[in-house]
Design goal:
- The complex is a heterodimer of chains A (about 120) and B (about 110).
- Chain A has about 120 residues and is an all-beta fold.
- Helices cover about 0% and strands about 55% of the residues of chain A.
- Chain A contains no helices and eleven strands.
- In chain A, strands 2, 4, 5, 6, 9, 10 and 11 form a seven-stranded mixed β-sheet that branches. Chain A has a four-stranded antiparallel β-sheet with strand order 1-3-8-7, with no helix packed on it.
- In chain A, a hairpin with a 2-residue loop joins strand 7 and strand 8.
- The termini of chain A are far apart.
- In chain A, about 35% of the residues are buried.
- Chain B is built from no helices and eleven strands.
- In chain B, the strands form two sheets. In chain B, strands 2, 4, 5, 9, 10 and 11 form a six-stranded mixed β-sheet that branches. A five-stranded antiparallel β-sheet of chain B has the order 1-3-8-7-6, with no helix packed on it.
- In chain B, strand 7 and strand 8 form a beta hairpin.
- The termini of chain B are far apart.
- Classes of the chains: A mainly beta (about 120), B mainly beta (about 110).
- At the A-B interface, strand 5, strand 9 and strand 10 of A face strand 5 of B.
Chain lengths: ~120, ~110
């Protein structure tokens, strides 16, 4: 299957700092990427849908100024958690849908953020 | 009421057992149904993908969709310790639509 790479896989930061997480499709072009958040023993909650070259579409209740998403190319989307606080500590996962594919999503390995 | 309901478990079975995992949903418009496997601290990986009602088999895994009952199942035959993971059901309205996930069922297969 196609490969989606996330970096970093884990990060620890101080409260008030900003953290950037990258999501790359390694062997296919992704017109659409999705960002999820997952708390321990909880389901994946969709945060936003990112389309290459346009603004991300955020789900209800997700602060767009807090979670900045950029999808500058067909193989890269970034999520920046701005002014992070301990309640932002979570597992962030991206997924990508191949160009022209209407079904299967390929998931990254996830990035664990811990805000002290 | 959540759109997709899934018993979080944990579910513990002996090696070789048949495992049955289930989800119910409320939106009759869902057309695409998926099962993902997620190992601890990893991203989900797609196991099975089904469109509309019916059965689909892939090796030891069988996915069933009963749209009349709004109920989907994943069966694992001859379960192995390596099957120990969290299994998430997911569904969407269209082929390229937003996925709605269940909470996930934590499965442990004991040797």
């Amino acid at each position: 299957g196609a490969v989606v790479s996330q970096h970093p896989s884990w990060v620890i930061c101080k409260s008030g700092t900003s953290v950037k997480i990258e999501c790359r499709s390694l062997d296919f072009q992704a017109t659409t990427m999705f960002w999820y958040r997952q708390f321990p023993k909880q389901s994946l909650m969709l945060m936003a849908t990112s389309n290459e070259g346009s603004k991300a579409t955020y789900e209800q209740g997700v602060e767009k100024d807090k979670f900045l998403i950029n999808h500058a190319s067909l193989t890269l989307s970034t999520l920046t958690v701005t002014s992070a606080h301990p309640e932002d500590s979570s597992f962030y996962i991206c997924s990508a849908r191949a160009q022209g594919n209407t079904g299967e999503l390929f998931f990254g390995e996830g990035s664990r953020l811990t805000v002290l | 009421q959540k759109e997709v309901e899934q018993d979080p478990g944990p579910l513990s079975v002996p090696e070789g057992a048949i495992v049955s995992l289930n989800c119910t949903y409320s939106n009759s418009a869902f057309q695409y149904f998926m099962w993902y496997r997620q190992y601890s601290r990893k991203g989900p990986e797609l196991l099975m993908y089904t469109y509309s009602s019916g059965n689909k088999e892939d090796g030891r895994f069988t996915a069933q969709v009963d749209k009349s009952s709004k109920y989907i199942s994943l069966f694992i035959r001859d379960s192995q310790p390596s099957d120990s993971a969290t299994y998430l059901c997911a569904m969407s309205l269209g082929g390229g639509g937003k996925l709605i996930f269940g909470q996930g069922t934590e499965l442990s297969v004991k040797p």
